[in-house]
Every structure is written in C-alpha cells, then in structure tokens.
Specification:
eight-stranded mixed β-sheet, 3 domains, Rossmann fold, 19 helices, single chain, 467 residues, binds NADPH dihydro-nicotinamide-adenine-dinucleotide phosphate, N-(1-d-carboxylethyl)-l-norvaline Dehydrogenase, domain 2, alpha/beta
C-alpha cells in the first residue's frame, strides 16, 4: 500500500535531525526529509531499516515541499544563526501561508522573537529540544514557543516523540509565544552548566581535599543517585568516575584534559539574567569556571608561582552531598526567578510548574527534585523556591553543610565558585537589613543620586552635598 503523503518534514539530517526523524517515523508519522548534502540523505534512508518505509528522502527543497501534503509542518535542525535565516529565505520561495516551519535548533530566543515578528510568508515556531542525540532518538524534552494554534497543530507529534515522566506525562509542552520555548531551553542549558559545575566542584573536594581516587569517588556518586540528588547528571558522573582507561588501565577521568568546551547557551542565560535584573550567580559562576578551565597555561603558571592547594580538607563526605542539594535548590530558585521576570518583560504566560514538569524526563537536567519543584511552583508559581515551605525545610537542613564545604574550600585553596555563589546569594536573600545603605551613601556623596530614608523623612541628600 502506498504511503500517504507526509505532512511532517525535516531539514538537516545531522546528529539531532537524523535521530529526531527516526523518532518521528517510529511513532507512526510519515516524514519527508531533506539535507543540504544529498549523499547524507541517501545514507540516512539506507540506514533507517524498517523505518525507511515511513521516510521519504528528497534531493531538493522543491522536492521536499512537493513530497508533502499541505498544510506542511517542516522541522529545521540546522545550526543556529545564519543557517536558519538562510533556510527560511529559501523556504519562502516554496511554502504556502498555512505551512509551518519549526526551528528546533538551539536558537537565541531574541532571534526567534525577531523571526516571529518579521512577517514570514508562512507560519513559524521555535522549539527547544533537549536530551542530546539519545534524547532526540528515543524521547527528548520539548519546550515549544509560538502561537497556541500552532502548538495545538503539532502537539500530537511532539507529545508522541517526547520522553515521558514517571507518571506517564509527555515532557513536551507549550511554553508561550514567539521565543518563549527557546528562552526556556536556554535557561535549561544554563542550569545544566551549573548542575555540572557543582558536581565537578564536589568531585574536586573529594579528589584534592580528601585525597580520594576516581574509583573511590564513583560509588559515592552512585549512592547519592539513590537519594534526594537522583538525577541523570549525578548518574553519569558516577559512570564517568568509574570508567577504566582502555589505554593505561587506570581511571579514565584522570586522563581527561581539564578544559571544558561550551557552545554559549549558558553564557546567553547569564547575560540575559543580568539584562532582566534577576542575576543567576550559580550559572554565572559555572560559565566563568568553564572559561577559566580553558586557560590551562596560566593556571599551570599560577600553581608554579603560588604552589598547589596547601593542605587537605577535613570534612565528612556526607557534607558534600548536603552541599550539592543546597546548591541545586539555590540554582533552580535563581533560574525560576529569572523566568518569572522574563515572563513579565516579554509578555509570555510562562507556566512555571509546567516548565518543571517538562524538565522531569528526556533532558540533561532531569532529576527527582523537579517533581517537588513542580509541586511547590503549582502552589505559588511566582514564589522564589527558597521561600517555598518544602525547600525551606531542605535548605535549613543542608545549608550548614554548604557553609562547611565552602569554608573548607576557602581555607584549603579549593576553588568552589558555583557553591560559593549559591551560598552568598542565599545569605543576601535571607538578610532583611542589607548593606546597600552604604552604596546609596557613596552614590549620593559622589553623584548626588539621593537616597530614601528608613523613617520616610524627606531628606534627599546627605550633609556632604553642601561641602
Ligand atoms: P550537526 O552538525 O550534526 O548537523 C548540522 C546539520 O545542519 C547537517 O544536516 C548540515 O547539513 C546542516 N547544515 C549546516 N549548515 C547548513 C546550512 N547553512 N544550510 C542548510 N543546512 C545546513 O548539528 P546537530 O544535529 O548537533 O545540531 C543541530 C541543531 O540542534 C543546532 O542548532 C544545535 O545547537 C541543536 N542541538 C544540538 C544538540 C546536540 O546534542 N547535538 C542538543 C540540542 C540541540 P550537511 O550534511 O550538508 O552539512
């Protein structure tokens, strides 16, 4: 029996696009595909096995459009930036107004806002897809932006291909208009940087502070993964710490160069948070640490000049688990606060509990704690998570250990930027009488900026104004 003409198409059969196309075909949606390099399309189709029957390979963009039944929905999986604009310009020559193009790459949400506003001659939405290649193939988390009408049109496909949370809910949802989906994906990636950095920091305390070997650290992380910290990133960190190097037979982790790469989405989040006036210091610290990690020569010169970290830390391993729990809560509290500000700024109806639910499976930051976050946010979506009763209890229990860990790091020369930033933010946020009265005094002294008085009396400047 001939296949019905697909209504779903996909452009860009790279790592993510190929996996996503197979996932869509596997869920029973016929799909037409096109790739800039035609040989890639042919190889993809030849390697699709039984799913090849659901897939229509095409050699040209015109061919892709002709192979599909209107109204068409075409997913773009090409590198963010100019390639997306170029593809949209080319598609404009072929598509009808009711056709829909879905940019599923890691676009900067400002670009998605711009593309939505620019009046493309077809419908357009931007979606964030998380979970890497395995996620795209077997179930990603999908954060969709665009109109509700276009979401409704695609929801069946997105929900079918998405990961499912433990309660069976698909991890695909509509985040809001225009760039909202890509924005939430960027915050997800920023949190991903921070979660990874905090795990790396406690690994560093175990290695350099407590003198533990990678094979000793692996079961500790694996044990943490059975508790409050249960998450994909702690799970894979245990596996990474436990891996044996096939070349030397020693721990593989000890052979990996300590310079981390990045594609910039964590940096976007940190910059955007500053623009919104709701900083995310744990994420900023994680971005900073990645940048510092790549300055290996300078770091080696620093160690030669100042010597290695002087002495061993003294603290129970349990403190590190508690510190990681506290750091994680504080990082997410910052991320959700930032998203609340963005919803106001950009006029998006971001649904905070829905975001926490979408992140529960399929994506890199999936964790057990997101269930509790979704519940806490459902009770009060705009509340800073550190003020939510459930997390306040957890923070009361875990912040003493976070203090001990950060203090040991400071005493023994172990850099813990993300955990320290989380603690400093927590202390600022739990101090009713801060220190910005001094800043306001200084500003008035040199710039006559004025200040408000606690007693409400009208006294716009200090006595220095007349001197
Ligand atoms: P790849 O490099 O594996 O694939 C890129 C694809 O885009 C190829 O099919 C390539 O075609 C095509 N392409 C590149 N430039 C152009 C262009 N100018 N015009 C048309 N097609 C072009 O990338 P990924 O699959 O890893 O990433 C795709 C998108 O998904 C990116 O935005 C990325 O940030 C995002 N993403 C990636 C994740 C990952 O884990 N890899 C996770 C989540 C999102 P050709 O064969 O001709 O080179």
């Amino acid at each position: 029996m001939a296949m019905t003409k697909p209504q779903v198409g996909l452009i860009g059969l790279g790592t993510m696009g190929a996996a996503l196309a197979l996932n869509i075909a596997e869920k029973g949606f016929p799909i037409a595909v096109w790739n800039r390099t035609a040989s890639v399309t042919a190889e993809f189709h030849a390697g699709a096995g039984a799913l090849a029957a659901q897939i229509v390979p095409t050699d040209t963009l015109a061919g892709l459009v002709a192979a599909m039944a209107p109204p068409r929905s075409i997913i773009l999986m090409v590198p963010a930036g100019k390639p997306v604009d170029d593809m949209l310009a080319q598609l404009a020559k072929h598509l009808a107004p009711e056709d829909l193009v879905i940019d599923a790459g890691n676009a900067n949400f400002h670009d998605t806002n711009r593309r939505t506003a620019q009046g493309l001659p077809f419908r357009f939405m931007g979606i964030g897809v998380s979970g890497g290649e395995a996620g795209a193939r077997h179930g990603p988390a999908i954060m969709a932006g665009g109109t509700r009408q276009d979401w409704d049109r695609m929801a069946g496909v997105f929900r079918a291909i998405a990961a499912q949370a433990d309660d069976g809910t698909p991890c695909a949802d509509h985040m809001g208009e225009a760039g909202a989906g890509h924005f939430v994906k960027a915050v997800h990636n920023g949190i991903e940087y921070a979660d990874m950095q905090m795990i790396a920091e406690v690994y560093g305390v175990m290695r350099d502070g407590l003198g533990l070997t990678a094979p000793q650290i692996a079961p500790i992380l694996a044990r943490w993964n059975e508790g409050v910290l249960r998450s994909y990133l702690v799970e894979i960190s245990a596996a990474v710490a436990g891996a044996v190097d096939p070349v030397t037979g020693g721990p593989l982790l000890d052979m990996i160069v300590d310079a981390a790469g990045q594609k910039g989405t964590g940096r976007w989040t940190a910059i955007e948070a500053q623009n919104l006036g709701t900083p995310v210091p744990v994420i900023e610290a994680a971005v900073m640490a990645r940048n510092v990690s790549s300055r290996r020569g300078e770091r080696a010169a620093g160690e030669a000049l100042y010597g290695p970290a002087p002495t061993r830390a003294t603290l129970p391993v349990g403190d590190l688990e508690q510190a990681l729990i506290a750091g994680k809560i504080l990082c997410y509290a910052q991320g959700f606060t930032m998203m609340t500000a963005a919803a106001d700024e950009f006029g998006w109806a971001l649904d905070m509990p829905a975001i926490a639910r979408v992140w529960r499976a399929g994506c890199i930051i999936r964790s057990a704690m997101l269930n509790d976050m979704a519940e806490a946010l459902a009770q009060d979506p705009t509340r800073n998570l550190m003020l939510a009763p459930f997390f306040a209890d957890l923070l009361r229990q875990t912040t003493p250990a976070l203090r001990r860990v950060v203090a040991q790091g400071a005493l023994h020369g172990l850099g813990l930027p993300a955990l320290s930033a989380g603690l400093a933010w927590f202390d600022l946020m739990r101090t009713a009488r801060g220190t910005a009265n001094m800043i306001q005094g200084q500003r008035d002294y040199f710039g006559l900026h004025g200040f408000r008085r606690l007693d409400g009396l009208d006294h716009p400047h200090g006595p220095w104004a007349s001197s």
